[in-house]
Each structure stands twice: as structure tokens, then as C-alpha cells.
Amino acid sequence: MRAVRYVYITALVVWLGGMVVLGAVVAPATFQVLQASDPAAGRELAGAVFTAILERFHYVAYAAGVLLLLTLVLMALLGPRPRHFAIRLSLIGAMLAIALYSGTVVLRDAESIRRETGGLPSRLPAGDERRMQFDQLHQLSTRLMMVNLAGALVLLFWESRE
After folding, report:
1. What is the pLDDT of residues 46-100, one digit of tens each?
2. Is residue 62 within 8 Å of 14, Cβ to Cβ?
3. Between 113 and which of 81, 98, 134, 142 could a Cys-Cys bridge form, CB atoms 3.0 to 4.6 Å apart?
4. How many distinct structural domains can be found in the chain?
């Protein structure tokens, strides 16, 4: 039982930590360094680099979500049912669905616009439909990540109480 809980907590920490590091460290540093090194093409390159990182991180999120679901169910089967089991199960399922939607639909659509515009939709005029759509997708992606971050913090809170 202890090993199963260890896997559960490890998966949660990897997912939560990855989201924090991506948002607070990787994205700002990538854009800052690449834009400073080449003001003309740096933002385009930073967008491409961060998109590749985000695509790979989504696979980590999917694996963590599946591990969380499996280990939570296994903990319920092997021992006393974890407190707030149904809520936790629902929360993890919702977080996994959000990650899947973000990593497939949102990221794919944003990348399509990025490629269509030569890699830099922010150079398009402010009223351009593609720029507005890209900005909306970027905001949606950020909001979805924040929802999952909040969900992971709730799960971590429950784990810290047990």
C-alpha cells in the first residue's frame, strides 16, 4: 500500500512541478534569452522551442494523470478508501481530460496558425483574425494549465492531510 501511495504522490508532484517550472521558469527564460540574442527572429524561435517543450510535457501530464487514476483506485481496493475518493477521482479525470484537450486540440490549432503565419502571429495587424484566434488559443491554454495547477494543489492538500 505504501508503494502505491508513493507512486501516486510522485506522479502528482511530477505533474504539478512540471506545470510550475514551465510557467514560472522555462517560458519566461526561453523568450527572454532568444529575443535578446536576436530581436528579429528570437520571438519566433522561442515560440517554436516552447511549443516543442509543451508538446513533450503533455505526454508527461498524460502519464501522470493515468498513474494518478490507477493508483487512487488501487489504494481504494487494497485498503481503506481514501478520503474524498469520488471527488479526487472526478478531479483527476477532469484534469486528465483538460490536459488531453489542451495537448491535442488547443496546441494543434495554435501551432497551425503559427505555421500559417510564418511562425509569428504577433507580427500580424491587431485586427487580423488569425492573430486574434492565436491570442485566444494562447489564453485558453494558459487558463487550462492554471485549472490543472489548482486541481493538483487541491490533491496535494488532501495528501498532506493524510
Report:
1. 988 999 999 999 999 999 999 999 999 999 999 888 989 999 999 999 999 999 9
2. no
3. 134
4. 1
Residue 71 CB: number of other CB atoms within 10 A? 21
CB contact at 8 A, 144 and 101? yes
Range of the domain at 142: 2-161
Please write the tens of the pLDDT for every residue from 97-129. 999 999 999 999 999 998 888 777 877 888 889
Q: How many CB atoms lie within 10 A of CB 99?
A: 23
41 phi and psi angles, rounded to 5 deg: -110, -5
Which 8-state DSSP code applies to residue 122?
Answer: G
For 59, residues 6+ apart whose C-beta sits below 8 A from its C-beta are 103
State the Cα–Cα distance between residues 7 and 12, nearest whole angstrom: 9
pTM exceeding 0.85: yes
